[in-house]
User: Which sequence fits this backbone?
């Protein structure tokens, strides 16, 4: 066993609101690579906040030994990157949300990948041969050179992930803590990332702590696992011991009474019930010189269940934005939704009444610290936040869907007080609350633990047994697809 790099002994947070159920004991020894795992809302992030010093302790602070690094600064030696959504990073949220679909406003002041990386490299220290070699290695491993001239607002979620990691690794931290670094990445990029981490921990004095919700994909470079359950930090075990002791879940965990209740929900009189839900004719989208979609023909019929796949940057999010009526370019394209051609007088809100939608981008948009049930209720009006008081009947519907996703006890908890996984379950409840004809689910299982991933799949499968229900779902994990999928479309990156 190597010497302790981080050592927390009987740690109790000063602020009562952020305390675990019992004193925290945690040690990261030299040479260890640790995965912190556990259910959504179990306290994983609280443990990280203790390790990084964000939640000061009573009596005594954690002990740190960052040698051979001569830099004693805690913030320089421990870097924490959260990937709670696809667009994690330090970029201004409002800028992203306003500019993502306004690429015509790109000008000479719009930052590129090169701009961001150059600034991060300079902040990280003086230029020398060793740092130049590290820079070249990172660029090579992440294939960053092809992205250097690309504007930030045009990056896919996977590309943004690579950018943020590259920026962080420039500073050569002693400990790198990452929250769900693999979500939103295609299989090739996930494998590349795992290989990069394996390479770096061998070549650099770097130790990695992963915070993982998905525990059936723990990378092989991880040496030990710490499980957090019920606001208690468990004992550190080897990766092999943890894998051997955790059996796979049943394939169906949704309560039968709830399943029957979903199937027996009353139908609305205002449904379109059209034969063609979406029809795209020779649709092309281009931002500057970058071709996103080219001559795409695609028809989605009532009752079909589509899996949409493709590499990061292939145009999946762009395609979904056209169908959701969020992309201004949709009016310049030959697109018919629910039998109505775009631009013939239908309102965006009329369309959205029939669509349930959740995505990493939406998760980023929700920074409203209001009670969770009000977030769910906002789905009835397709608003960000809630600006009209729902009726008691509407609140009852919200409570039903929160119960479906195991959120009965979280009704009055404010959104930002929930764990990232619990927030995603709230947004899933929001997508279902109006009993939509078309479900568009873009990486809906991001950040969910193993149980809630199975639960969400069960809910989707059950819901799709109702008549006149259509599904388009994006995921980079084949095992996350519900069993109801009967059609597939794959986008190729241009």
Assistant:
């Amino acid at each position: 066993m190597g010497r302790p790099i981080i050592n927390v002994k009987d740690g109790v947070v000063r602020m009562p609101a952020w305390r675990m159920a019992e004193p925290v004991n945690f040690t990261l020894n030299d040479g260890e690579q640790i995965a912190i795992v556990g259910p959504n809302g179990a306290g994983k992030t609280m443990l990280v906040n203790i390790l990084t010093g964000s939640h000061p302790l009573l009596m005594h602070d954690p002990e740190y030994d960052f040698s051979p690094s001569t830099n004693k600064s805690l913030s320089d030696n421990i870097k924490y990157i959260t990937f709670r959504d696809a667009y994690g990073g330090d970029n201004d949220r409002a800028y992203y949300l306003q500019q993502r679909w306004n690429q015509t406003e790109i000008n000479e002041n719009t930052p590129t990948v090169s701009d961001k990386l150059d600034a991060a490299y300079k902040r990280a220290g003086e230029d020398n041969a060793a740092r130049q070699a590290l820079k070249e290695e990172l660029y090579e491993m992440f294939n960053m050179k092809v992205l250097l001239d690309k504007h930030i607002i045009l990056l896919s979620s996977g590309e943004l992930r690579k950018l943020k990691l590259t920026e962080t690794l420039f500073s050569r931290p002693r400990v790198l803590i990452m929250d769900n670094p693999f979500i939103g990445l295609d299989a090739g990029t996930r494998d590349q990332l795992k290989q990069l981490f394996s390479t770096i921990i061998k070549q650099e004095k770097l130790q990695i702590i992963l915070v993982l919700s998905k525990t059936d994909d723990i990378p092989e470079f991880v040496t030990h696992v710490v499980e957090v359950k019920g606001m208690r930090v468990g004992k550190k075990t080897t990766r092999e011991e943890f894998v051997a002791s955790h059996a796979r879940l049943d394939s169906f965990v949704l309560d039968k009474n709830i399943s029957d209740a979903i199937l027996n929900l009353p139908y609305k009189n205002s449904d379109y019930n059209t034969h063609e839900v979406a029809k795209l004719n020779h649709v092309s989208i281009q931002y500057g010189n970058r071709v996103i979609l080219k001559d795409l023909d695609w028809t989605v019929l009532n009752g079909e269940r589509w899996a949409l796949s493709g590499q990061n940057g292939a145009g999946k999010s762009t395609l979904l934005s056209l169908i959701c009526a969020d992309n201004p370019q949709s009016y310049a394209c030959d697109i018919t939704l629910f039998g109505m051609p775009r631009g013939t007088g239908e309102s965006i809100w009329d369309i959205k009444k029939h669509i349930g939608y959740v995505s990493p981008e939406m998760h980023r948009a929700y920074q409203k610290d209001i009670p969770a049930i009000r977030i769910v209720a906002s789905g009835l009006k397709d608003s960000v936040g809630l600006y009209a008081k729902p009726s008691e009947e509407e609140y009852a519907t919200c409570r039903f869907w929160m119960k479906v996703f195991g959120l009965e006890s979280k009704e009055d908890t404010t959104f930002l007080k929930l764990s990232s996984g619990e927030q995603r379950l709230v947004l899933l409840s929001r997508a279902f609350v109006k009993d939509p004809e078309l479900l568009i689910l873009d990486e809906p299982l991001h950040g969910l633990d193993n149980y809630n991933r199975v639960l969400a799949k069960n809910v989707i499968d059950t819901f799709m047994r109702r008549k006149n229900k259509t599904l388009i779902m994006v995921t980079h994990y084949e095992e996350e697809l519900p069993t109801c999928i009967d059609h597939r479309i794959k986008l190729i990156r241009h």
The chain has two domains: 4-245, 256-271+303-329+343-491. The chain has 16 helices and 18 strands.
